[in-house]
Amino acid sequence: MSSTVVLRTYKVPRALGGCSGNKKCHVIRSRRPLASSTFFHSATTFLSKPSLITVTEEPDTLFQKVSLLVKGHDKSVLDSYELFATMAAKELGITISKVCDLPKDTERFTLLKSVHIFKNHRVQYEMRTHYRFVELSHLTGSTAQVYLEYVQRNLPEGVAMEVTKIAMEKVPDHILKPMWEEDPIDKKISQ
Q1: DSSP run (H or E) holding 153
Q2: CA distance 164 to 63
Q3: Which CA distances in Å does 169 have to 71, 137, 150, 166, 186?
Q4: Which residue, 50, 56, 72, 74, could crosslink 159 as a Cys pair with Cβ 3.0–4.6 Å?
Q5: Residue 138: what are its φ and ψ, rounded to 5°?
Q6: pTM (2 decimals)?
Q7: DSSP 3-state percent helix, strand, coil across the chain (nearest 5)
C-alpha cells in the first residue's frame, strides 16, 4: 500500500480566523489516502520571527534554599505529587536536600442530629490535612523560576502549595574589612 501526501497552502483571511494580529500565516492541509477513507489534517504555521533572547549585565539571583510545603486532604495524591516534584527536580539537576512527611492536622466538628431536643444524639465530622515538605538547595533564579512554574502548573486539584525562598546576597563592603583594623585607639598608642 503506497501512501502519497498532497500538501496545499492556502492564504486564509483574518476575518475567517486564520491568523491573529499582523503576522503572516498559512494553513497547510495535507491529504493522505488510506484504505477506505480519506484523512484530513490541518495545521497553522506562523511565519513571524521568533523572539530574540536578551542578555542583561545583572547577575542571576542565587537561592540558598527553596522550600515547598504541599498540603491536601488525600494522602495518595500527595504521595504521587511528591514523587513528581522530586523527579522533576532530578531531571533539572537540582539538589534535593530534604523530603519529609509532616504530622497531619485533624479537625473534628461535633453537631447535633436533631434540631430541638435529644442532645445525646450527635454526629462527629473529621477533616484531616496531610503535609509534605520538599527542600531544594543552591538554585539559580532562572532554574527556580522554571521549576516552580512547571510544578505549580501540574498541581492536582485539592492540593495547596506554599513556597519559601531564601536568597543569598553579597556581603556589604563596610563589613568585609574587620573592625579592629581601623580602630583609632591602636593609632594613638602607636604614635
Answers
A1: helix 141-153
A2: 10
A3: 30, 15, 26, 10, 32
A4: 72
A5: 55, 70
A6: 0.59
A7: 25, 40, 30
